[in-house]
Amino acid sequence: SSLVIEPGKAAWVVYVDVVCLNFDGGVLDAAVLAAVGALRSCASLCPPPLLIACNSLMKDVSCSEVPAAALDPDTNEVVCERVSEAHPGQRIAPASEPFCISFGVFHGCVSPISCTPSPSLPDRPSHPARRHLLPDPTLFEAELCSTQLTVVIGAAPEGSLAKAPLLHVYQAGAPLDKAREMASECVRLARERATELRRVVNV
To answer: Of 104, 105, 165, 172, which sits 20 to 30 A from 138 (CA to CA)?
Structure first.
């Protein structure tokens, strides 16, 4: 909403390019976190001045602010004011920020003993395959998982995330038994993890 100039008619557009330098799992989580951090601290990351085209004119503004703008009803064009003390502009301040948390579901044994009994060793105890939930799996772990779940939580800048809005849930891979219970557990863990991630970008 902070990018809207005139509802339904004009709005600023922000482009964020994310480049992955080393992929070892959790790339979507890291990309979303990087984008949130960039929008928060772009004033210190982007060398001013940033040139923004507005109404065919180039305006010098800080990249964490957008110029004061209005839609001219006569010409139907956006008219901007140069950022100054008289027109300080508007910071990009979303009401909530997305935090993406991924999980892998591994079906198998974590014990070196086989999941199935061996005919040559009838006395060896068997361990049936179990389902293990792996938060933030590495690339190696993700390749061993039969199912991946991604939860996106909308976090306000401050306050508890116990009732933070659930923005998105995505599941890929094999279907899950008791999928509702597993999804609920992932959402619970995602809220806890989002609290830690918010603390990271607040530093």
So the answer is: 165
